[in-house]
């Protein structure tokens, strides 16, 4: 079956999605013109808004009918996501994101750092308005873990001895944790405690699969399909799963080339490293791991009632996996 | 009367201050070594810890006897303050703060941005543990305003037409707002709603005076007494009150020199600008404004019971003013 994003994922929550989109724009209010300009720029540059869609679907999958509060939660999730992207682009010195100039490139690093801070604060401010202490605790702990994941990634840069376990900690923090907040947050807000764990597990495994797939595409894709260049991770000396797995499966000269490429960064040996990643079976291993994570995500959903909303969440996980098949 | 910081300000809350200091160190916990290293570095590089002291004094001045929660609040305030300093140093590309290498200089901008994010998140996480929705709302709104003040400052850089009103908005956000959170937060946490406004007003006016004094010293002091160099603000083209006031009191060539110095930044005309700031009466005006703000701060305290704690808050405002007398 071919999965269509609009029809098979977005459609069941399309009207709530529109309300969410309106709320994002209303939620960004400031008397400071530069805050408004930068915030609008980065929020409008958004992608498919996967996280808020997941949040809305999770609410409906829990049996929630009134999504008024959940559309706000979904908007907050997207705002938090945008804030992390703004800071990521400063950290990575990126000039483009999804084909548009980044905030740091359009304005400067200073503006990007401070408007990112505003967006983090504003997300919390809107979250406080939802008046739910369990939700606040989940988010305040979660955002700490997201920042820690990002720092762990920085700490692991240029470290060829990074283990798969550390890699999993990094991607859990930098990617999966926000997906978890999006789905578990909906269950908390609906008072459906029995669905907190299944929805968190779904999102956590989905996020892991999503990031592993992203890291595979850095060695197999091109700018046109992904919005980033092949070899970006290698350039920065990031020990992602394709390289960790290649190191586990090679020896001698090949292993040394991969180790050295992580340690020094740069794309001097890019073609050679790609060839090693492919011939060593590393990509096969990564695909296997992404498939396992996707299956674990689907399995976690099994305890939820079988509704079009649960099916849409399943479709989202399957569609993500299709990117590498 | 000569005011001694330790004896006349710190002494009434010395034991609570020690508990606060312990809690800061305990509050910074992370499994990620780099998060710990950077956080410890920046928190230990702290100054006089004026904000947490003000928070503890405000609690006692409200009549609070059990400061267990307030020592945590005071620690959170200092952590938030540290987070803003870490990002400020990235924004200002500072290499030294209080004579010690900054986080961005010791590690790099990336690390400083992300550990700053961690400290913001961790502050909220600890704040949520205090389990007080009014306090959370005050802080979530307040941190938005702090970020907005910082962006407004950036937006006003190199703008010779910046008004005194805009200057006051900037310093309220970047400086006074956190002082307000420190004192009003104590009243909220103690459920002493009648003292919220007086304590907020005290801290707001104190913060304004404090920042105006800081901005005066940028044209009259040297690195030894202040930890920053004379002319730093001019270098960055910041339209602070000494320059805004000089522009209001000069015409012709002098006025043009000041306007141009704001527009371009740099210290090419530093000596000439200092001379204009002094001869135009701008410094006198700034001293008058700082004195007025200090008096307004003291007056706001008058409705609180006359205790050694209120007196210590008064001493703090007077001591700050002494820096320019």
Automatic annotation (TrEMBL), chains A, B:
Gene3D superfamilies: Farnesyl Diphosphate Synthase
GO biological process: isoprenoid biosynthetic process
Cited InterPro entries: Isoprenoid_synthase_dom_sf, Polyprenyl_synt, Polyprenyl_synt_CS
Keyword terms, alphabetized: Magnesium, Metal-binding, Transferase
EC number(s) reported in the record: 2.5.1.84
Cofactors demanded by this protein: Mg(2+)
Key word Magnesium present: yes
Molecular function per GO: all-trans-nonaprenyl-diphosphate synthase (geranyl-diphosphate specific) activity; metal ion binding
Superkingdom as given in the UniProt entry: Bacteria
PANTHER family: ALL TRANS-POLYPRENYL-DIPHOSPHATE SYNTHASE PDSS1, GERANYLGERANYL PYROPHOSPHATE SYNTHASE
Family assignment from sequence similarity: Belongs to the FPP/GGPP synthase family.
Name recorded for this polypeptide: All-trans-nonaprenyl-diphosphate synthase
Organism encoding this protein: Acinetobacter faecalis
């Amino acid at each position: 079956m071919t999965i269509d994003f609009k029809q098979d994922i977005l459609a069941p929550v399309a009207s709530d999605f529109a309300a969410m989109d309106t709320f994002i724009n209303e939620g960004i209010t400031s008397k400071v013109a530069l805050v408004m300009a930068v915030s609008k720029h980065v929020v409008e540059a958004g992608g498919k808004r996967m996280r808020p869609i997941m949040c809305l679907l999770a609410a409906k999958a829990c049996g929630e009918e009134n999504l008024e509060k959940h559309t706000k939660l979904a908007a907050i999730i997207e705002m938090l996501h945008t804030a992390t992207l703004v800071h990521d682009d400063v950290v990575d010195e990126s000039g483009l994101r999804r084909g548009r100039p980044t905030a740091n490139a359009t304005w400067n690093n200073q503006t990007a750092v401070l408007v990112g801070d505003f967006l983090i604060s504003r997300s919390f401010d809107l979250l406080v308005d939802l008046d739910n202490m369990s939700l606040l605790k989940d988010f305040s702990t979660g955002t700490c873990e997201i920042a820690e994941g990002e720092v762990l990634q920085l700490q692991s840069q240029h470290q060829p001895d990074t283990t798969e376990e550390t890699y999993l900690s990094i991607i859990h923090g930098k990617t999966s944790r926000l997906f978890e907040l999006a789905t578990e947050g909906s269950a908390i807000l609906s008072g459906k405690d029995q669905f907190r764990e299944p929805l968190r597990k779904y999102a956590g495994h989905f996020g892991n699969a999503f990031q592993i797939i992203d890291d595979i595409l850095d060695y197999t894709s091109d700018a046109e399909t992904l919005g980033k260049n092949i070899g970006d991770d290698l350039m920065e000396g990031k020990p992602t799963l394709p390289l960790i797995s290649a190191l586990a499966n090679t020896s001698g000269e090949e292993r040394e080339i991969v180790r050295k490429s992580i340690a020094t960064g740069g794309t001097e040996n890019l073609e050679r490293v790609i060839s090693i990643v492919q011939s060593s079976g590393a990509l096969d291993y990564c695909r296997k791991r992404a498939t396992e994570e996707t299956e674990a995500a689907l399995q976690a959903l099994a305890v939820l009632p079988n509704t079009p909303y649960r099916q849409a969440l399943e479709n989202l996980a399957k569609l993500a996996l299709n990117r590498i098949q």
